[in-house]
Design goal:
The complex is a heterodimer of chains A (244) and B (250). By secondary structure, chain A is an alpha/beta fold. Chain A has two domains: 2-68 and 145-243, Rossmann fold (3-Layer(aba) Sandwich), CATH 3.40.50; 78-143, no CATH class. Chain A is built from eight helices and eleven strands. In chain A, strand 10 (193-197) and strand 11 (203-208) form a beta hairpin. In chain A, helix 2 (84-96) packs parallel to helix 4. Chain B has 250 residues and is mainly α. Chain B has one domain: MetI-like (MetI-like fold), CATH 1.10.3720. The relative contact order of chain B is 0.13. Classes of the chains: A alpha/beta (244), B mainly alpha (250).
Amino acid sequence: MRRVSLSFGTRRVLHGTSLTLKAGECVALLGTNGSGKTTLLRVAAGLLQPDTGRVLVAGTPARAGRADVGIAFQDSRLLGWRSAGRNVALPLEVAHGLTTSVRAAAANALRRVNGLGLENRAPAELSGGERQRVALARALVRDPALLLLDEPFAAVDAPTRNQFCAELPELIGGAAALLVTHDVAEALLVSDRVLLLTATGEIGREWKGLRSLPANQRRSSLLAPGGLSQQAELLAALSGVVHA
Amino acid sequence: MRSLQPLQPALIGLLFLGVWEISVRLSGVAAFIVPPPSLVAARFAQAWGDGTMLRHLLPTVMEVTAGGLIGGALGLVIGIGLGLSSAARRLASPYLVAAQSTPILALGPLLVLWFGPGTTAKTLICALITLFPMVIATLVAVRDADRGLLELGRSIGASRIQSLLFIRLPSARSGIFAGARVAATLAVVGAIVGEWLGGSAGLGILVNLARGSLFDTPLLFAALVQIALVGAFAYFLVVFAERLSTRLQK
């Protein structure tokens, strides 16, 4: 993403924003409500066209509907009239129809996100956490090279969020991932790098995330003195954004 | 008491009929003005026994079925088109409302003039009266599909047709069926109105015959009961279709 600017009417949301993701790395974009995190994600997904600047995914211009991009929204956006399995299958179904291999891929994606047993259940029967699990499986079902996660755990309770934070670094696998969030601990636990989106829609400072650590050490590292001071620093920076 | 709940509507109906029966008998109102329900029931059974009811029922059912299906299908297609295109909505809406504001009773004689007093004009009246609720219900439901789900469709590369088939229409299903429920009962109204304009058989004709040349008020009531039964059957057929579509969609 190079020098991307975008305004809604007179309100400037992104202002010369530049961001590069390497293959396989997970970047958390931290910002307060209204800082333009979701807008940036939608620009990366090709769902919004920037006023200026350009966005490339694997060397080609971003556009909506690319098979190598998966997106999980803040609200799970499950189709209530389809079973969880058929929701997961949807991205493949629009390209190939509902074949046996598509069903198998959907079942695999659900297994990958620890959603075993959810396949035949209706979205209305699922808990908030299970719904997000299904939405994540849908984002992963095409094995995307770029995974875009728009505060996917914002609507789930704290224990479920903790569980997701523990599982997500491995679930992402080899994809490049961009996670937007306003949760400092979540950003640190899940990502390789944490970036701060300023109130003027620019990328600010950068912190190192804990994803590279073994899974069983991340939370303890977050709660160690170094991790706590990093959290405090990030919170202060985030507050600075709020007060700016 | 909970186990009696399904019977409550029937109990209310029986109570109503009981009050009606007793009131008529006690007041001494002549049967040719308000017949007691027992007399209506006996006339209803007799009309079925001698084939009168069936002879008049079949044409009405045919008109309701054909007209309802034509109007429903056309309404669905037009509603989808208008729901998808704001330009088409802008162009068509005034004419659609104007067409609906024209009473079908006023349009009926014209249709009979063009197509004769046979089945065609009556079927067309049924189709026209069914069209508007279907168009409006479909238009609103398709137009107001969840923006988030439509964005999801774009993000996974769904074409416009796929977005319509996978997202807009399934999410519009309950709205469309709400329109179909209204349309189903209106189709019966359309058939009766059409039959009043002329013809030789149909429940509307039977009502006119019972009121006029036969002067058989119990038969008139029996015909009204039969019309209500046709309307209820059409309504519950739509409810059944809705349940079936819900099951198939999963």
